[in-house]
Amino acid sequence: MRSARSRLRLRDLLGAAWLGVSSRPQRTALASLGVALGIASLTALTSAAASNQAQLLADFDRMGANLAVVSPSTAPNSSPIPLPDTAPHTVQRVDGVEDVGVFETAPEDIRVYRTDLVPEEETNGIKVAVARPDVLAAVEARLATGRWFDDATRNLPVTVLGSAAAKRLGMDRAGGRVWIGGQWYGVIGILGSAGLASDLNDAAVIGDRWVRNTFTGTSIGDISAIYVRAAPGRLEALKETLASAASPGSPFVQVNALSDLAEARATADDSLSTLGLALAGIALLVGAVGIANTMVVTVLERRGEIGLRRSLGARPRHIAVQFLTEAAVLAAIGGVAGLLLGVCAAAALAFASAQPLVVPVEIAMASPVVAILVGALAGISPALRAARLSPTLALRAV
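RESULT FIELD:
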């Protein structure tokens, strides 16, 4: 008569594995600690590298690594080829463009003076710039006092002074007035920083609509430059697209990066990404060794229990599957704890260094899975070896 085939149901398997973990809290805590430290080192190192990378790239972007200038060019006969009026709108619609700021051609022979009594030759090197309201955000300029142009003030005789221009005119706050082109202009703001549009430091900026309605000339209202702020890391890929978007089919468009930082940014991004991968690999290797050692000791020290279970009718495959499951559960506990510990460590480092906290999503999702896989792999050989022991020999280990 055949004996009934023994089965180990999933519920019983998980119950037995959990009982093996929970019945020995001290051993479980120590074993999980080794797993947790390995995963915590993986998470903390990769997060710290990612935070450093994010901070460095943000610094590059603030210095203008993602800023370009689209400007009109000249034909072979040296005649200017203006950009179409639609250029700012078509450039803004290009994927990867975040902000667009437009400068227009300033009237010729217009000077800036503190009062109408200053001799004409004493210009102090101050020039006039004509800007639309969107310039401030595009070049990331900052106001020291007052305000920038809006839809109302761009129609009025008002000006925003660059920082150097304000010093030369003896003005330290908004609210005064200056003499520009033969009439008074109210000073509504003074720039603290012009960003990378450094020409604004020495300029008195006036509104575009006021210039079009007040001055005459063939170039009045023409676009002199479009400042384009691209999404981080997208500037190099956008250069060719920006020219065709600004003036489709025209070869007379110049697109220049405002600095040489774009290439340096790309190099730093690649180098830091490689460094992050290297640190992740090292930390993962450390974690794998810790998990393997812990699982080997955990399985080997329970050979007496294995012998007892075998003598009560458990099959070798039951023993192997149970201890593999237990190793995976133990590794999962350590993996989750290590992930939380690593995130806390990365947050503390980011706070101490005033950097943004960046935890790579792939690392956060993979850490517990890696812990389970490595823990299970580490337990395969000891579990199979113990499962092959005869009940008599195994019981002698008790």
